[in-house]
Each structure stands twice: as C-alpha cells, then as structure tokens.
Amino acid sequence: QRALNLLVADATQLAAELRPALRSLADAVAWGSAEEQTYARAQGPAQVLSVLSPLRHGRASMALSSSPAPAELVAELEGLRVCRVDGLLAALASRACGVARALDPRPHMRRAAF
Predict the structure, then answer these.
(1) What is the mean predicted confidence (pLDDT) over 63-75?
(2) What is the DSSP code (8-state) at residue 53?
(3) pLDDT at residue 97, as a whole number
(4) SS3 content of the chain, % helix, strand, coil (to 5)
(5) Do residues 21 and 42 make contact, with C-beta atoms less than 8 angstroms apart?
(6) For 46-79, b where at least 16 C-beta lie within 10 A, e where not — what string?
(7) Distance of alpha carbon 53 from alpha carbon 35, whole angstroms
(8) Between vectors from CA 14 to CA 21 and to CA 48, what angle results, nearest 5°?
(9) Tens digit of pLDDT for each residue in 8-60?
(10) Is 0.85 surpassed by the pTM of this model?
(11) What are the φ/ψ torsions at residue 91 (nearest 5 degrees)?
C-alpha cells in the first residue's frame, strides 16, 4: 500500500509539473517535435494515474491536493489531442487549396495564389 501511495504521489507531482507545458500546447498553432515530446511526456503520468488511482479508491491519499485528478488530466490530454488534429487538418486543407490553385488551368487563378 505504501509503494502504491508513493507511485501515485510521484505521478501526481509529475503531472502537476507538466501542467503549464500542457496549457501552452493548447495555444500552439502548429505542433513540432518539441510539442510532440511534451505531449508524450504527459501521457506517462496520466496513464499511471488512471491505472493506479482505482486501486487506491477509498483509501487515504498522499496525493497533492492542488494537482489535477486523473480524470481531469486524461480529459485535458484528450482535448489537446483534438486541438492537435484540428491543427493538422487545417494545415492539410491549406496545402490542398494551394495545390488546387497551382493546378488550376485558368492563368488568372494561378497568379492570385502566389
């Protein structure tokens, strides 16, 4: 039980420390390798908490009271995943429009694209 409490406390602390970085991801227009790494780092504590927290249900908690609950952290990560996909789709749509303009046989349309 003590080891379980320590693991949950450590994962909770790590999740709390990553929270500001996760908030910055929500504002990122485009994700690069740094954003991907931040997102991947945050998934570890979230997974640990989602697995271990039910084992502690109804028992005394050593977790930090200011940190997010596991469900909140998972929801935040899911929201970030949606933001990431939205950004990727917007970039893809922009590229597709550019290609469509470049392939348009009407000369006046091609000049307007560049």
Answers:
(1) 60
(2) G
(3) 92
(4) 80, 0, 20
(5) yes
(6) bebbeebbeebeeeeeebeeebbebeebbebbee
(7) 27
(8) 115
(9) 888 888 888 888 888 888 888 778 888 889 888 888 888 888 788 777 665 54
(10) no
(11) -65, -40
Residue 39 near residue 80, CB atoms below 8 Å = yes
pLDDT at 29: 75
- Tokens of residue 8, six digits: 């949950």
Structural contact between residues 22 and 38, judged by C-beta atoms closer than 8 angstroms? yes
**DSSP readout, 6-49?**
HHHHHHHHHHHHHHHHHHHHHH-SS--HHHHHHHHHHHHHHHHH
- What is the 8-class DSSP label of residue 69? P
**Averaged pLDDT, 70-92:** 84
Q: Element (H or E) spanning 65, and its range?
A: none
